[in-house]
């Protein structure tokens, strides 16, 4: 099995080493958190002079460590492993399997010679507990499935094949090692049902399993389209003759987001400089899981491409919203009407901002106008970027918009700086 380098994450861990905080590595199950900790980071520690007997490893999701899910036993086990006053490194995997884990971690924080790293696959109890329990002593590192650049670094084949593969089967590390398309499809369908959905249902004690299953399908077919719980409730009522209340839908969407299966993008009114509450957009953390859920039927490249760009921006550490520009236009009768133009992404990092449109196809004049029109109506001078399918190198058109191919965007970590 080839090893995929995940240098960006390793760097985030090494920068935080010995900083007196608990390093919490979060992300969807099976995205490579355990491998990062137990293989890549452990090797780094060993190469930098840490003795193996000063590295304490506990994987709580393994049946062999079932008794260590008891907080008192676990704490005792860790204390007993620490034989001297030198620095110890604790690598604790899937911490959500332990009740009252915050108390264990808090007790460890009081010891000066242990540096703690934990992984978890649910944001709810991690982020909310870390903020309150550790009072600012928790340090979160979010891990994603493979970015396209990571995927491509071990792919045997050319860019076009890799891109097609990634658009269909996504970037979960296990998928890369599977040979046939059938194996990949079966693996994704199987873990969606038996790992992710099962986790969400059990953790949140969901009674009506059919509802959340259909909800996942609705969200999967609507990636990149603005939607909200009442719209979804109406769909259920009209198409399925099912009553599924807004409140329940809203809760179920939160559960899926807490398990890192989906992300919510807020809509931002660029001219009014405010968030618009209604109609969020939802994207899947992994396009392969999304496609598997729909039995690989709906393959609209535009939406999948948009989803991949969204994930890539998050991986690079940007804050990403969906933009709306209000304009006034004339209708057929010449009356002045108000229109909303969409900007795919409003991307912020510190004082940097970018506006990004994602266009699979820009061959027709009409399509170009549609993509450029919202950018033309933005009243500030931050950089405006259009990402198109293919491997075009970046260039600036006469309106000052940067146009670049998907390949350039994905394979150059600083592509937005062009």
Automatic annotation (TrEMBL):
Gene3D superfamilies: P-loop containing nucleotide triphosphate hydrolases
Domain of life: Bacteria
Residue ranges occupied by any AAA domain in the UniProt entry: 21-151
Domain DUF4143, first and last residues per copy: 198-360
SUPFAM superfamilies in alphabetical order: P-loop containing nucleoside triphosphate hydrolases (SSF52540)
PANTHER family, per database record: AAA+ ATPASE DOMAIN-CONTAINING PROTEIN (PTHR33295:SF18), ATPASE (PTHR33295)
Name of the protein described by the UniProt record: AAA domain-containing protein
């Amino acid at each position: 099995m080839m090893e995929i380098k995940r240098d960006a994450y390793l760097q985030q861990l090494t920068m935080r080493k010995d900083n007196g905080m608990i390093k919490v590595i979060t992300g969807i199950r099976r995205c490579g958190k355990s491998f990062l900790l137990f293989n890549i980071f452990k090797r780094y520690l060993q190469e930098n002079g840490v003795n193996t007997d000063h590295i304490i490893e506990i994987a709580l999701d393994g049946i062999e460590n079932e008794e260590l899910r008891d907080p008192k036993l676990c704490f005792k086990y860790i204390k007993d492993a620490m034989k001297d006053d030198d620095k110890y490194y604790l690598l604790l995997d899937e911490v959500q399997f332990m009740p009252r884990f915050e108390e264990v971690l808090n007790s460890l924080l009081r010891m000066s010679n242990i540096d703690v790293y934990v992984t978890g696959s649910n944001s709810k109890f991690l982020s909310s507990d870390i903020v309150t329990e550790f009072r600012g002593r928790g340090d979160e590192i979010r891990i994603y499935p493979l970015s396209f650049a990571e995927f491509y670094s071990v792919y045997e084949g050319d860019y076009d094949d890799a891109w097609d593969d990634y658009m269909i089967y996504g970037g979960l590390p296990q998928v890369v090692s599977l040979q046939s398309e059938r194996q990949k499809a079966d693996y994704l369908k199987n873990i969606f049902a038996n790992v992710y959905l099962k986790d969400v249902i059990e953790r949140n004690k969901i009674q009506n399993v059919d509802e959340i299953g259909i909800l996942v399908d609705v969200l999967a077919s609507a990636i990149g389209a603005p939607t909200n719980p009442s719209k979804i409730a109406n769909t259920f009522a009209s198409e399925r003759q099912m009553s599924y209340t807004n409140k329940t839908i809203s809760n179920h969407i939160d559960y899926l987001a807490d398990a890192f299966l989906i992300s919510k993008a807020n809509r931002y009114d660029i001219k009014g400089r405010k968030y618009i509450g209604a109609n969020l957009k939802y994207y899947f953390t992994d396009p392969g899981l999304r496609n598997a859920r729909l039995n690989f039927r709906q393959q609209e490249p535009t939406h999948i491409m948009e989803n991949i760009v969204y994930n890539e921006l998050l991986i690079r550490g940007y804050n990403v919203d969906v933009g709306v520009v209000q304009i006034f236009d004339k209708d057929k009768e010449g009356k002045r009407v108000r229109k909303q133009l969409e900007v795919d992404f409003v991307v912020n990092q510190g004082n940097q901002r970018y506006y990004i449109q994602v266009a699979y196809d820009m061959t027709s004049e009409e399509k170009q106008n549609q993509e450029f029109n919202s950018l033309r109506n933005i009243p500030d001078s931050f950089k405006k970027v259009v990402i198109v399918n293919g491997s075009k190198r970046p260039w600036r058109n006469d309106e000052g918009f940067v146009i670049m191919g998907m390949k350039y965007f994905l394979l150059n970590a600083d592509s937005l700086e062009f």
